[in-house]
Amino acid sequence: VQLQAFGGGLVQAGGSLRLSCAVSGIVFSIYAGGWFRQAPGKQRELVAIMLSSTSYADSVKGRFTISRDNAKNTVYLQMNSLKPEDTAVYYCNAPLWSNHWGQGTLVTVSS
């Protein structure tokens, strides 16, 4: 299983970014997937997961949206109204809760 995440970058507070994670090596359509993040000096934390439905960390509810395109074996994270505290390296994980992770993509939100 290989995951390749991209789409991070530097954005001002209030801005938006969309992260993408291309998944190969599994039939992605039958698996759940998710996004996690790790800020400097902090533990990795769950951001959003997609099973038959979606679930979000309280800190991103109403601002972030996880989605997937099974035809493209890709999971997305649309991030709106970004805040400086969203600054972190973002990782995709599929199958969810497995040991398969993307390489991480850095999101930096300036104030």
How would you describe this structure to a colleague?
This protein is mainly beta and about 110 residues long. Helices cover about 0% and strands about 50% of the residues. The chain contains no helices and ten strands. The strands form two sheets. A six-stranded mixed sheet has the order 2-10-9-4-5-6, with no helix packed on it. The chain has a four-stranded antiparallel sheet with strand order 1-3-8-7, with no helix packed on it. It starts with a strand and ends with a strand. The relative contact order is 0.33. The mean pLDDT is about 95.
Q: Termini, distance in Å?
A: 37 Å
Strand content: over 45%
Portion of residues within helices: under 10%
The global form is globular
Sheet of most strands: 6 strands, mixed
Question: Strand-and-helix sequence, N→C?
Answer: EEEEEEEEEE
Number of helices: 0
Rg (CA only): 13 Å
Number of β-strand runs: 10
Which strand order does the major sheet show? 2-10-9-4-5-6
Mean pLDDT over the residues = 95
* Structural class determined from secondary elements: mainly beta
Uncertain residue segments: none
Topology:
Elements: E1 2-6, E2 9-12, E3 17-24, E4 33-38, E5 45-50, E6 54-56, E7 64-69, E8 74-79, E9 88-93, E10 105-110
Parallel strand pairs: 2-10
Antiparallel strand pairs: 1-3, 3-8, 4-5, 4-9, 5-6, 7-8, 9-10
